[in-house]
Amino acid sequence: MKYIDAFRNADVARGFANAMAQEVQKGRHYRLMEFCGGHTHAIFRFGIHTMVPKEIAFVHGPGCPVCVLPKSRVDYAIALLQQHRVMLCTYGDVMRVPASGGNSLLEEKAKGADVRMVYSAQDALQLARLHPEREVVFFALGFETTTPPTAVVLLQAQREGLKNFSVFCNHLLTPPAMRQVLDSNDLCIDAILGPSHVSTIIGSEAYQFCADDLKLPLVIAGFEPLDVMQSVLMLIRQLNRGDCRVENQYARAVKAEGNQKAQRMMAEVFTIRDHFEWRGLGMLPASGLQIAQRFSLWDAEKRFEVCAMEHDDEVKGCLCPSILRGVSQPQDCRLFGRGCTPEKPQGACMVSSEGACAAYWQYGMGSGALRQDAEVVL
Amino acid sequence: MCLAIPALVVSLDEITAMATVDIGGVRKEVSTQLVEDLCIGDYVLIHVGFALQKLDEDEAAQTLKLFAELQSMDNDQ
Ligand code: SF4
Q: Is-contact A38 B2, C-beta < 8 A?
C-alpha cells in the first residue's frame, strides 16, 4: 500500500540500525521518551527496541488518552446512563475502562444500559437524528487528533438545531501535559520522539518550548517502523552534536503551522479548562478542553445534573503514576501479570493497547522471550 | 487512539462534504470538513471517519530518497 510498505522495509531498517551502532558514543546513555502511546505500540509491534543499540532506552510517556482518563469521568458517564437513561455513544477503546466500582461501560451495557460503540462522532450525531425521542450523548475523548471531529459535529448540531444531542467532553491538550511531565525533577530523559498525528493538527511549531525552555531535542516521528528508526537516528545525531532543536521527520503529513482549518474549528467550539485531572498524573493546569459557552445547549455537563458520586482511589501497588511519567517500567509493578492483565486491568496503563503495561504484556516483555505477535522486521 | 491511516481519494461530494476513499482496496466514506482544497487522486490521513490532513507527495519522496541513500551506503560497506 502506498505510504505504508515503503516505510516498513527490513533492509532499510537494518541500514538505520547499522548507522545507529556506528554513531552512538560508547558508554553514553540515550534515553528517549516517546510521548505518544501509538509509538510505544509501534516500538514493540515491530520489535524496534530489539534493533537499536543497547545505549538507547525508550521511556514511555503518558500519551494514551484512554490510559489517562480518570475514573471519575467514567463514573460520570455511568451516572448519565443510570440517572438520565441517555443513549451513550463512544469509541470502542473506552468501553473497558474500569470505573470506581470496578464496572465498565461494557458491563453496564450487558446489564441493559444503552451504550453504543461508534466509529465516528458523526455516527453519534446520526443516531440522534434517527432517535429524536432519545437523549443521545457522545462521550468524546482524545488528544488534538480526535478533537477536530468532535468540533465538526458540535457545529453541525448547532446548525441543524438538534435538540437531543450533546457531548460529554474529555479532550486533552498535548503541549501543556508534555511541559508538566518533562519539567518534573525526577525525570531523566535526553530527548523526545514527538507525536505523529497530534502534530498533523497542531503543527511542529507547537513544540518549540521543548527546545527553548526545556533544552530537550525533539523529533516529530511518523508511526511506521522506518519513521521511528529514522527519528531515533536524528535524535542521536542531535545529542552527539549537543544540539537541541525541533525537527520534523514526518514532513509528509506535518506542516510547521499544522492544520489551520481544524484549529479554527476547535477554537470556535472549545475553551481551555483551568484544570483537568489526568489519571496517574493528577490535576494539570490548562491541559483539557471544555465546550464553549455558546454551545452550552450541547454540553452534556451543563445539560444533565448528576448526583454526587463516590470515587475510588487507585488500586494499591499500581505504579501507573510513575510509569506515565517515565520513571518506572511496567515490570517494576508487582501486579503486572499477577492480578493485572488486559482482560482484567487494575490500572490505567493496562487498559488500552497503547498503554505501556498492555504493550509489555502483549509483546511478552518482562516475561522473557518475545511473543509470537511481534512483527519483528529484522 | 491517535492512529490515522493513509487513503486515496476516489470521489468527492461537495454538497455533503464527504469523500469516498480507498484504503488498500477497501472503500470508505469519510468527511472532508477538516481539510481544504482536496482533489481526486490526493492521499489523505483518515482518522475516526474524517480526513485529517493531505499527504505531501514531494515530502514523502524526499524521505524515501534518504532511505535509498542509506541503503546504498550500507550495500557499499
Ligand atoms: S501492571 Fe497494572 S497495576 Fe501495575 S502499573 Fe501497570 S496498570 Fe498499574
A: yes
| Per-position pLDDT tens, chain A of length 378 | 788 888 898 889 999 999 999 999 999 999 999 999 889 988 998 999 999 999 999 998 888 888 889 889 999 999 999 999 999 999 988 888 888 888 889 999 999 999 999 999 999 999 999 999 999 999 999 999 999 999 999 999 999 999 999 999 999 999 998 998 888 767 789 999 999 999 999 999 999 999 999 999 999 999 999 999 999 999 999 999 999 999 999 999 999 999 999 999 999 999 999 999 998 888 999 999 999 999 999 999 999 998 877 777 778 888 988 888 888 889 999 999 988 998 888 887 888 888 899 988 988 765 434 444 445 443
- Cβ neighbours of residue A74 under 8 Å, at least 6 residues apart? A94, A97, A98, A99, A100, A104, A105
Q: Which chain A residue's Cα is nearest to B45?
A: A253
Strand A191-194, strand A115-117: pairing: unpaired
Q: How far is residue A348 CA from its own chain's centroid?
A: 12
A195: region left, alpha or beta (phi > 0 left; psi from -120 to 50 alpha): beta
Beta strands in A186-337 (DSSP E): 191-194, 218-220, 246-248, 270-272, 275-278, 282-285, 289-291
For the record, the C-alpha cell of A86 comes out as 441517555
Cell digits for B75? 550495500
Check if the beta carbon of residue B11 is closer than 8 Å to that of residue B40: yes
SS3 of residue A191 by DSSP: strand
A300 in helix, strand or coil?
Answer: helix
DSSP-derived letter for residue A101 is T
Distance CA A304, CA A77 (A): 11
Helices (H) and strands (E) in chain A, counts: 15, 13
Q: If you measure from the C-alpha of residue A117 to the centroid of ligand 1, how many angstroms do you get, rounded to a whole number?
A: 26
Pairwise CB contact (< 8 Å): A119 & B49: yes
Measured over the CA atoms of residue A208, residue A212, residue A214 and residue A219, the dihedral's sign is positive
Q: Which of A196, A230, A261 sits opposite B35 (nearest CB)?
A: A261
Query: End-to-end distance of chain A based on CA atoms, in angstroms?
Result: 20
Tell me the chain A residues in contact with residue B49 when contact means C-beta distances shorter than 8 Å. 119-123, 149
Q: What Cα–Cα distance (Å) separates residue A155 from each residue in A86, A290, A295, A300?
A: 21, 14, 9, 15
- Per the structure block, which three cell numbers stand in for A237? 545525531
**What pairs with residue A223 in β-bridges?**
none
Note whether B31 contacts A143, CB cutoff 8 Å: no
